[in-house]
Sequence to fold (453 residues):
Amino acid sequence: MATSMEYITRFIEWRVYRKKAMDISLMLFIHLYIISACALCVTSSNYRSSTEGNQPPSHDAHDMKSTTGFLDVLLENYDRRMRPNFDGEPTTIYVDMHISRFDTIKEVSMDFGMTVFLRMRWNDPRLRYNMTSQHIPPSAFMLDKIWIPDLFFTNEKVAYFHDVTRENILLRFYPNGDVLYSVRVSLTLACQMKFEKFPMDEQHCYLEMESYGYTTRDLNFEWKKDKPLTNDTIFELQQFKVTETRVNKCDKLYYTGNFTCIKVNFTLERELGYYWLIIFIPSFLLVLLSWVSFWINPFASPARISLCITAVLTITTQAIGVHEALPKVSYVTAIDVWMALCLIFVTGALFEYACVNHCLQRFGKNRIKELLSRAGAEMALVDLSNSSEPGRMGFKGQTSVADTYDIESQIKEHKEVVQALRIDRFSRYAFPMAFIAFNIVYWPVTLMKEDTH
Fold:
């Protein structure tokens, strides 16, 4: 009995100890859970704070009143007359450009037009701010309150800013003090064109930007290293295609100092389709047409003279029309050489007939009339005898009369006429061969591209 009571007592004590152990374990689990949850909340909060520090705050993070006050304080002691780092290192301006369109190139006025988005970026330590607590909205209204580089276009003829529907100006500020200035501007730029190889020419135009007042000790323009030039589509012009664009530095030295300068070069290659259809093919056919006179009877003076004169006048009219689209240059162009040689060949055909006609003049008009009158009289006698003696009109008799009184064959037997016909036969081969030789030399020389680098 005693043993049973001891067993029961120990069992009850074991149950009590077990319950206490379970309570203690439960309390430890609850405490560990609470500590883990608190640690997770703290870690998440720190991560969110670090992440928000790298992102621009939303407009809701700052009210209008605080931003207005911050801008007033920021610009209170700001002097826009002083460049950044005044009396220190030169301020570096990084420039890039987006070309919106290329306008028509005008040879007469020697200029071209383009519309660009000009972007400049520089650092101004006076405009640094804490990004987590403040925010500067992008606005063009601050343009008159901060320092802006005095960039100008050295080869500009006409320029204007766009203001539809508002001024196309962007001014953006960064917490580290960087300032981005972007403006949309249309320009008409001078281009010193050379027309020695017109219309097989290449024009090298440029856009040059320079500081007007600051020397290289104060200001330095640099092209943006990553894609300084961009464009939406391939440039499509009426008579040109842009084959190359290059950017480089072009610092200028004047007696007032050394000024920073950057430059973009455009290589413009002229398309020949228009000139093939309007100039080269028609003038080539006119030269061929003038050679037809070499196969016309030398006694047909009106036909040969009118053909050659018509070709000469047409070539002359073409040459005048070509020069209406060009400035009045004092040197010879490639199209001048072509039109002049075509005119020489057409005029040569006219002079060739002058030589032929001179030989015929030596033969003499009186002798031709005498042959014609004599042939007419003899032919009348033959007709009369044939009508009185019908039996003598055989085949043999007709051949004899035709051979005897063939006027053309009699004329061609004379020395002067033979010489005139030889001139025609020689010209039929000499003129085409000379024209082919001219083309063999002309086209390789004019189509050869010059190395401008």
Summary: The first strand starts at residue 91 and ends at 106.
